[in-house]
């Protein structure tokens, strides 16, 4: 009896898993209305209403400048909310919010006020605090992090900035400096000079930036220290090695694929020419140039201490190893999908496709990634028609990408229009569509209408987009349809 | 947690007070930039922005060179100080860039009065600068020159100041010499010079060239070629070919360019064959009787050109040049082309203005078509008025009896066997009808042609930039593959040459206030 019951339970569990998996595949990542324009509309209005610039300075010019900077911050965050830079998806939001809750409970004297958490849809490995108890965490950070504790460290670091009033202090410093006699005299000295005015103006700005950067680096060290204290209070482990990993955050496209680039397109049954993948340019991009990196800041201008330095300073405060919790796999995958969709909607197609291939390298057979491949080819086909393929591909210099990425980029650039059409059409006929949800099939129809409608008028595109939105009002893909409805 | 970059600080600071705005405005007024394309073997390989940042002293400026690859990605910058420079040309060979400037302490300079200007000691130079892809300036050279006033006092008096304006008689032309270095040609008030440099920027040799009307420079493998235009009987003819050994400057025999009957040639293309890399010339054969009658439609319809030609330059003497002359004025091309050049296929005449070679040895000629029609009204009026001695001549002299208009673009092909055929007609915007005795130059000038080719796919495209649209014609597919409208609502679109096999599309949206730039493949 026990065996039969456990056998039945096992079967039930087994079938639940399969159904659950299928449901997960078809369940959308978030609703269109979870985007910040809708889900944080109240918070946006509250910020606009309640973020009133305090009267701090007797000097009118300084107060005026301070208000400008203050209002600039308000505009930044409200515009970002309006532009759907953030999403309140539920799962990821709650996962991060749980960390904040733990930190708050364990540090009640430090975190006295509730923080407004925003999940930024950006792929960059970053988080930021802007003061006013607002903190944003990027999807890129969640996909990069190897442990929950890493995310907790970053969150604690940003919360520390808010606790220590770093954003507010920075705004005050800027207002004071920009209205100071010293600054005005420096500008006048530039105007009074007959020669080298640009160099002198640059020095004035660098001087200000040096001073600001020095303060920023100090702020960052302060935030690191306070963050570690908060983690200790919360019994969350601290591993300083995360600082060393931060140096590799710009290298996501340097990661090679496991197979030949061509192999990832073998399911599309179209002959792939070798020359599409090869660089045939006579141009300077294929040369070995080695200019001094002009994007690298002088040490004096960096706002953050070097990662190695941060590691060394905090090494002694490491908690014992082995206490790290892997990031919830479902959360990580969801974050990755949301990030891929956002990259796609911003028409950075090579990056999007490469991330899809990286997922497939992990053995992920979720048909959602095949669906995204279809969308990418549809987007590329459309961009080609609009004479905008170059911008849609987003060509990156070879020193920042892997050999596979370089080949993929070349292929997307060089595939002839008629072969691109074949590739796209092949993607519309793949077997995976059978198990896809109605909204994904609806998106496929929308893309077909936009790409192949004989009448290329804006009105036709508008009508096709409207039809998709009317039939799928909560679909996250309404964001895409919106581009054509506008 | 990420790093900030300086420009963010600059942007923050640019939240401006009035004083701040004034500073930024005044400083930015001293800054000027121009963009040049970087070429190697006649192909675009990158872009360079030359910026004058500020006046560094009484007679020097601080400059910045920004290098970009053919995809407009930044490669790096170089800063340096020099006297007043005007960048004229940039070339690239073996990881070395050669920049050629006009360096002048007087050109564009303002003087309070004529006395100051006439007593000023002018110093003008041709300045060459050699830059590696590590951002190092490895060599500079300065050759003294005299700017020419071109027949007038080189100053302008405006707003109470005298400003000196002058220039070179022949602008600087700069080409790379494969594996070896660079060659540069220019002409000042004293004469014309051809100079070569090695890859370290060292001057190898210099030659004084006859001061003729114009030159066009070309390099091919180890040799330097110059197409020389001299005065002569025919306004569109009078060309000679000069050639030099790049190593030692040895001058080969001058080749006078005419057909076997001594007829002058109008050169439309002087370039390297895309497959062999050897030079070739192509163009129209000028009719010895009507060759100067190209002023208006009536004259053009009488056949000032008697055929087309191709010359493949396989060596340095006339015997080494494989010449192909194909005539229609002898009736040999009938019924396709009449003796006067009338094409039966298009029912029009064509004035060839461009030529190019494909990857299969065929040479193409392209130009605008025009049609000539009788002005029936004027003819009838002149007949009716015939008894009146003065009226009819007045009608005939003023309104004329023919009218012409420019229509589509014709493409003709001369194959490797010298057989000429009509290849295609590319639909374009017609001009209005004008009197037959009026020049058509203005309408021809509204159109430009250039080629885009792809060495890997051996595909050739011809871009016809017309007043209303840009047509992209595939020579291989023999059809227009794309038409881009210059104006679409509030959006204006322009097409320019870009890296091999590509065009640059610049889209300016006045309503949304943005300019979008894209480099698109033609395949």
Q: How does this structure look, described?
A:
The complex is a heterodimer of chains A (486) and B (523). Chain A is mainly alpha-helical and 486 residues long. Chain A has 22 helices and 3 strands. A 3-stranded mixed β-sheet of chain A has the order 1-3-2. Chain B has 523 residues and is mainly beta. In chain B, strand 5 and strand 6 form a beta hairpin. Chains A and B meet through helix 4, helix 7, helix 9, helix 10 and helix 17 of A and helix 1, helix 2, strand 2, strand 3 and strand 4 of B.
Give a short summary of the structure.
The complex is a heterodimer of chains A (486) and B (523). Chain A is mainly alpha-helical. Helix content of chain A is 61%, strand content 3%.
Q: What is the number of helical segments of chain A per DSSP (H or I, 4+ residues)?
A: 22
What does the average pLDDT of chain A come to? 88
Largest sheet of chain A: 3 strands, mixed
* Count of helical regions of chain B: 7
Order of helices and strands of chain A: HHHHHEEEHHHHHHHHHHHHHHHHH
How far apart lie the N and C ends of chain B?
A: 44 Å
Radius of gyration of chain B: 27 Å
Oligomer: heterodimer
Provide the helix percentage of chain B.
under 10%
CA gyration radius of chain A, whole angstroms: 26 Å
Q: What gap, in angstroms, lies between the N and C termini of chain A?
A: 64 Å
Going by helix content, strand content and strand pairing, the class of chain A is mainly alpha
The greatest interface between two protein chains, and residues involved on each side, is: A-B, 70 and 67 residues
Strand order of the largest sheet of chain A: 1-3-2
Q: Any idea what the shape of chain B is?
A: globular
Ranges of chain A where pLDDT stays below 50 over 5 or more residues in a row are: 1-25
């Amino acid at each position: 009896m026990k065996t039969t019951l456990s056998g039945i339970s096992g079967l039930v569990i087994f079938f639940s898993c399969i159904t659950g998996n299928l449901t997960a595949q078809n369940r959308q990542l978030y609703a269109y209305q979870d985007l910040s324009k809708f889900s944080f509309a109240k918070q946006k209005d509250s910020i606009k209403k309640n973020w009133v610039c305090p009267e701090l300075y007797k000097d009118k010019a300084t107060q005026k400048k301070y208000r400008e900077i203050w209002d600039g911050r308000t505009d930044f965050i409200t515009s970002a909310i309006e532009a759907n830079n953030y999403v309140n998806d539920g799962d990821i939001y709650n996962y991060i919010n749980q960390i904040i809750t733990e930190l708050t409970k364990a540090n009640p004297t430090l975190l006295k006020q509730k923080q407004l958490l925003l999940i930024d849809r950006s792929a960059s490995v970053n988080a930021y605090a802007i003061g006013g108890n607002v903190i944003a965490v990027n999807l890129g950070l969640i996909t990069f992090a190897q442990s929950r504790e890493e995310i907790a460290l970053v969150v604690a670091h940003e919360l520390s900035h808010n606790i220590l009033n770093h954003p507010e202090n920075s705004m005050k410093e800027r207002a004071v400096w920009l209205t100071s006699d010293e600054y005005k005299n420096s500008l006048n000295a530039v105007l009074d000079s007959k020669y080298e005015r640009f160099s002198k103006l640059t020095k004035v700005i660098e001087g200000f930036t040096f001073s600001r950067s020095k303060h920023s680096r100090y702020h960052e060290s302060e935030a690191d220290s306070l963050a570690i204290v908060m983690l200790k209070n919360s019994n969350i482990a601290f591993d300083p090695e995360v600082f060393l990993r931060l140096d590799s955050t710009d290298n996501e496209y340097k990661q090679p694929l496991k197979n030949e680039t061509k192999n990832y397109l073998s399911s599309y049954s179209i002959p792939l020419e070798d020359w599409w993948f090869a660089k045939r340019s006579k141009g300077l991009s294929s040369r070995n140039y080695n200019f001094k990196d002009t994007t690298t800041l002088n040490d004096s201008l960096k706002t953050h201490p070097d990662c190695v330095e941060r590691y060394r300073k905090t090494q002694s405060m490491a908690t014992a190893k082995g206490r790290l919790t892997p990031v919830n796999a479902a959360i990580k995958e969801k974050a990755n999908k949301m990030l891929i969709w956002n990259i796609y909607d911003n028409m950075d197609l090579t990056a999007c496709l490469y991330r899809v291939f990286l997922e497939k390298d992990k053995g992920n057979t979720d048909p959602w990634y095949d669906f995204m491949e279809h969308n990418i080819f549809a987007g590329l086909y459309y961009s080609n028609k609009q004479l905008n393929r170059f911008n849609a591909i987003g060509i990156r210099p070879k020193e920042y990408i892997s050999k596979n990425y370089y080949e993929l980029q070349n292929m997307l650039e060089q595939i002839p229009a008629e072969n691109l059409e074949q590739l796209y059409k092949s993607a519309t006929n793949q077997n995976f569509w059978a198990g896809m949800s109605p909204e994904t099939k609806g998106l496929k129809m929308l893309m077909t209408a936009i790409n192949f409608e004989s009448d290329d008028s804006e009105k036709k595109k508008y009508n096709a987009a409207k039809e998709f939105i009317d039939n799928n009002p909560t679909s996250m893909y309404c964001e895409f349809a919106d581009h054509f409805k506008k | 947690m990420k790093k900030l970059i300086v420009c963010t600080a600059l942007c923050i600071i640019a939240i401006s007070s009035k004083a701040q705005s004034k500073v930024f405005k005044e400083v930015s007024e001293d800054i000027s930039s121009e963009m040049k394309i970087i070429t190697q073997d006649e192909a675009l390989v990158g872009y360079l922005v030359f910026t004058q940042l500020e006046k560094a002293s009484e007679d020097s400026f601080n400059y910045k060179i920004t290098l970009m690859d053919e995809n407009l990605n930044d490669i790096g910058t170089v800063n340096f100080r020099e006297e007043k420079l005007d960048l004229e040309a940039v070339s690239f060979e073996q990881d070395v860039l050669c920049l050629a400037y006009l360096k002048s302490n007087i050109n564009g300079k303002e003087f309070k009065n004529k006395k100051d200007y006439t007593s000023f000691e002018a110093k003008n130079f041709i300045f060459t600068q050699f830059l590696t892809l590590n951002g190092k300036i490895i060599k500079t050279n300065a050759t003294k020159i005299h700017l020419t006033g071109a027949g007038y006092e080189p100053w302008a008096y405006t707003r109470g100041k005298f400003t000196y304006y002058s220039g070179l008689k022949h602008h600087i032309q700069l080409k790379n010499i494969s594996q070896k270095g660079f060659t540069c040609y220019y002409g000042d008030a004293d004469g014309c010079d051809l100079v070569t440099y090695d890859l370290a920027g060292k001057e190898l040799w210099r030659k004084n060239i006859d001061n003729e009307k114009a030159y066009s420079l070309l390099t091919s493998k180890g040799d330097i070629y110059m197409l020389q235009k001299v005065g002569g009987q025919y306004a569109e003819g009078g060309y000679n070919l000069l050639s030099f050994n790049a190593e030692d400057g040895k001058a080969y025999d001058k080749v006078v360019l005419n057909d076997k009957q001594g007829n002058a040639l109008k050169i439309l293309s002087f370039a390297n064959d895309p497959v062999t890399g050897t030079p070739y010339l192509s163009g129209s054969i000028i009719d010895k009787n009507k060759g100067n009658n190209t002023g208006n439609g009536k004259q053009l319809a009488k056949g000032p050109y008697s055929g087309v030609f191709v010359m493949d330059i396989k060596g340095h003497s006339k015997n080494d040049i494989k010449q192909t002359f194909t005539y229609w004025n002898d009736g040999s091309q009938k019924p396709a082309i009449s003796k006067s050049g009338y094409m039966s296929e298009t029912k029009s005449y064509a004035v060839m203005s461009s030529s190019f070679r494909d990857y299969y040895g065929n040479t193409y000629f392209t130009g605008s078509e025009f049609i000539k029609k009788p002005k029936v009204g004027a003819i009838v009026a002149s007949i009716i008025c015939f008894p009146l001695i003065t009226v009819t001549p007045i009608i005939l002299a003023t309104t004329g009896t023919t009218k012409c208009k420019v229509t589509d673009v014709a493409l003709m092909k001369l194959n490797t066997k010298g057989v000429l055929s009509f290849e295609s007609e590319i639909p374009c915007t017609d001009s209005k009808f004008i009197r037959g005795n009026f020049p058509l130059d203005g309408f021809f000038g509204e159109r430009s042609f250039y080629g885009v080719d792809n060495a890997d796919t051996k595909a050739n495209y011809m871009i016809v930039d017309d007043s209303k649209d840009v047509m992209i014609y595939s020579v291989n597919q023999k059809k227009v593959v794309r038409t881009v409208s210059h104006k679409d609502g509030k959006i204006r679109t322009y097409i320019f040459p870009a890296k091999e096999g590509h065009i640059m599309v610049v889209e300016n949206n006045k309503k949304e206030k943005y300019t979008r730039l894209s480099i698109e493949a033609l395949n």
